[in-house]
Every structure is written in structure tokens, then in C-alpha cells.
């Protein structure tokens, strides 16, 4: 009895047809049903795990895409050199900069 059920396990991997389901309804073998449900649940669990991995992959790809899109926007919206107001002038060469820090940086780099 148990041996026969074990041998049948592999057949459960194929979904039952409507006729097969009807025929089995007339004479329900509960151990058989138990095995079937167990295997189906294993398969479902496996499928869910696979889908979860796939979902993670897609989510990563999506966030990468969103990141590269927003990077592109940042680049486009960045002020161009001529639009930066330059109120700070290098006391040595007269070049103008947008901030005191920029001038200091320039002086350190070019004039020391
Ligand atoms: Zn200078």
C-alpha cells in the first residue's frame, strides 16, 4: 500500500485531468490525497521561491534604471559654466568664481 503510493508520487507532478479528478472523488484515498497535496505544496513553494528571486532581479534592474534616469536628469539640470554668478575674484590673476571656497581652491592649486 505505501510502496504503491510512493511509486505514484512521480505521476502527481502532472496535473490531473477533470476525468481523473471525478473518478477519484468516488473512492477517496486520504493517504493518496495527503501525498498529492504535499507534493503540490512543495511545487508551489518552489515556484514561489523562484518568482521571489525573479522579482528581486527585476526590482534591482528597475532601481538601476531609475537611478540612471535621475542621473541623466541631474546632468541636464546642472547649471552650465556661464550661468554661474561669479562674485568672487582671484586677487592674483583676476579669474572669477561662484564662491569664496572656489577662489581659495583655485589660489591653492594655481598660485602656491
Ligand atoms: Zn588666480
Automatic annotation (TrEMBL):
Signal peptide: none annotated. Residues 41-75 form a coiled coil. InterPro entries: Znf_C2H2_type. PROSITE patterns: ZINC_FINGER_C2H2_1 (PS00028), ZINC_FINGER_C2H2_2 (PS50157). The keyword Zinc applies. Keywords: Coiled coil, Metal-binding, Zinc, Zinc-finger. Residues 88-112 form the C2H2-type domain. GO terms for molecular function: zinc ion binding. This is C2H2-type domain-containing protein.
Amino acid at each position: 500500500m505505501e510502496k504503491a503510493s510512493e511509486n505514484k508520487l512521480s505521476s502527481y507532478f502532472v496535473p490531473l485531468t477533470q476525468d481523473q479528478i471525478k473518478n477519484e472523488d468516488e473512492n477517496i484515498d486520504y493517504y493518496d490525497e495527503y501525498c498529492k497535496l504535499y507534493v503540490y505544496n512543495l511545487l508551489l513553494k518552489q515556484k514561489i521561491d523562484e518568482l521571489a528571486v525573479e522579482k528581486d532581479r527585476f526590482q534591482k534592474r528597475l532601481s538601476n534604471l531609475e537611478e540612471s534616469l535621475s542621473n541623466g536628469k541631474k546632468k541636464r539640470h546642472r547649471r552650465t559654466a556661464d550661468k554661474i554668478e561669479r562674485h568672487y575674484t582671484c586677487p592674483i590673476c583676476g579669474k572669477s568664481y561662484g564662491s569664496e571656497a572656489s577662489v581659495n581652491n583655485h589660489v591653492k592649486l594655481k598660485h602656491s
